Structures are given as structure tokens and as C-alpha cells.
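[agent] plan:
  1. take the single chain provided in the ticket
  2. run structure prediction with default settings
  3. attach C-alpha cells to the ticket
  4. add a short note for the reviewer (M.T.)
[agent] executing step 1
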Amino acid sequence: QVNLVESGGGLVEVGGSLRLSCTASIQFAGRTMGWYRQAPGKQRESVALATANGDTRYADSVKGRFTISRDSARKTLYLQMNNLKPDDTAVYYCRLDRFWGQGTVVTVSS
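[agent] step 2 finished; step 3 output follows
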């Protein structure tokens, strides 16, 4: 069993920033991890991936605004979110293999 705990969500105004964290109960070096989000009434979508070899991939909607990073020593995955927009409002989840965190809520007010 792998536990993933997200934190850092909250209420922010348009144009603001937040940094999400996801701490794993195991070492995840060598494994791909990702951030996903699910807005009300919509399907869960991939936001950003950090692959085992250091590559990063982003959804078109967040490119240039979001940055994914990982600290293997701290067993923590991060998502820096800048210039937030109302469409970024969602529950954000981190994922490692088939395991998901419980989610953290991000609300962007206009």
C-alpha cells in the first residue's frame, strides 16, 4: 500500500499563485508521478507529469504557468501554479502508478 498526501490547496484570486505538495509513503525515485485535476461536472484530466528520467509534460492549458518538480530525498512531488485562472478551479490529485492521493481543493475567484 502506498499513501499519497496532498496539501497546499486553497482559495486564491485570479492571477495568484499556489504551490501544491504531495508526500509519498515510499521512495519514488525511478517512477513517473503526476498531477491530475477534476473540476465540478468534468472528467479527471492530466495536468503535469514528471517522468523517472527527469522529463516533464504539461497539459496545453497550463503550459507556461505550472511547473512540476520532485524531491526524491523528501519523497515529495510539487506543483507550482502561477497566474491562476478561474478554469483552474478543481480538486487536484497526485498519482504514483495506480495509487492516488485524496486530493486538495483549489478555488480561483474572479
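[agent] step 4 note for reviewer: The mean pLDDT is 96.
[agent] ticket updated
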